[in-house]
């Protein structure tokens, strides 16, 4: 019974991590910079994996989608790929987890279900590592540009979406660890106590 409860908890933790990573992928404020100080002109520059935008003091936004994938910086391409891979792996990990849990009726014998649950844990761990790597790569680039004294363009800061992605990556990773450590059922030997 304790194993079933730990599987359900691991499933809920992993699914919540997958939902959080899926929700941070399309959000707007991955990096933000503001120009303040004058009464007349105040602007907020922000960007995500898909577009860059400027919002003025009246609240009007002007956005520009990235025109070509090949024209993007390498870190944005890598982050996009890793985050999409994380969402895809999380989806397949949740399907495997549903088939491998002891409380479901699909998936075959208990031994086969234990193998499927272990596979789900490995897939969740890979998904968590993909999203953590993508967010860390993006954050590293932003902080490197921010603290570089020779960088002359507008300096951007890292926002809350990165922290949410990293925390949700850790959630998926730990949920995957719990699935991976699910023990297969021990075979009962009728001669064990003779």
Task: Write the SSE topology.
Layout: H1 2-24, E1 31-35, E2 43-47, E3 51-56, E4 61-65, H2 74-100, H3 110-147, E5 157-158, H4 160-180
Antiparallel strand pairs: 1-2, 1-5, 2-3, 3-4
Helix pairs in contact: 1-2, 1-3, 1-4, 2-3, 3-4
Structural class computed from helices and strand pairing: alpha+beta
Low-confidence stretches: none
- The level of helicity is 55-70%
Instruction: Give the ordered list of helices and strands.
Output: HEEEEHHEH
Question: How would a textbook summarize the main sheet?
Answer: 5 strands, antiparallel
End-to-end distance: 27 Å
Strand order of the largest sheet: 4-3-2-1-5
Q: What is the beta-strand fraction?
A: 5-15%
Q: What's the overall average pLDDT, rounded? A: 79
Assembly state here?
Answer: single chain
How many H/I helices? 4
Using DSSP, what is the number of strands?
A: 5
**Overall morphology:** elongated
| Rg over CA atoms | 22 Å
What characteristics describe this protein?
194 residues, alpha+beta, five-stranded antiparallel sheet, 56% helix, elongated
Structure description:
The protein has 194 residues and is of the alpha+beta class. 56% of the residues lie in helices and 12% in strands. It is built from 4 helices and 5 strands. It has helices spanning 2-24, 74-100, 110-147, 160-180, and strands at residues 31-35, 43-47, 51-56, 61-65, 157-158. A 5-stranded antiparallel sheet has the order 4-3-2-1-5. α1 (2-24) runs parallel beside α3 (110-147) and α2 (74-100) runs antiparallel to α3 (110-147). 29% of the residues are buried. The model has no long low-confidence stretch (mean pLDDT 79).
């Amino acid at each position: 019974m304790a194993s079933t409860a730990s599987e359900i908890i691991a499933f809920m933790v992993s699914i919540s991590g997958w939902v959080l990573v899926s929700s941070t992928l399309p959000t707007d404020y991955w990096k933000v910079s503001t120009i303040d100080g004058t009464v007349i002109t105040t602007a907020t520059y922000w960007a995500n994996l898909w577009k860059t935008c400027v919002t003025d003091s009246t609240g009007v936004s002007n956005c520009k989608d990235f025109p070509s994938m090949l024209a993007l910086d390498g870190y944005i391409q890598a982050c996009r790929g890793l985050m999409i891979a994380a969402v895809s792996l999380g989806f397949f990990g949740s399907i495997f987890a549903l088939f491998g849990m002891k409380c479901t009726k699909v998936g075959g014998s208990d031994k086969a279900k234990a193998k499927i649950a272990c596979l789900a844990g490995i897939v969740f761990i890979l998904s968590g590592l993909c999203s953590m790597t993508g967010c860390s790569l993006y954050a590293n680039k932003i902080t490197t540009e921010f603290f570089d004294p020779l960088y002359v363009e507008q300096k951007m800061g890292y926002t809350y979406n990165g922290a949410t992605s990293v925390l949700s990556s850790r959630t998926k990773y730990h949920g995957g660890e719990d699935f991976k450590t699910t023990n297969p059922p021990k075979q009962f030997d009728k001669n064990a106590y003779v």
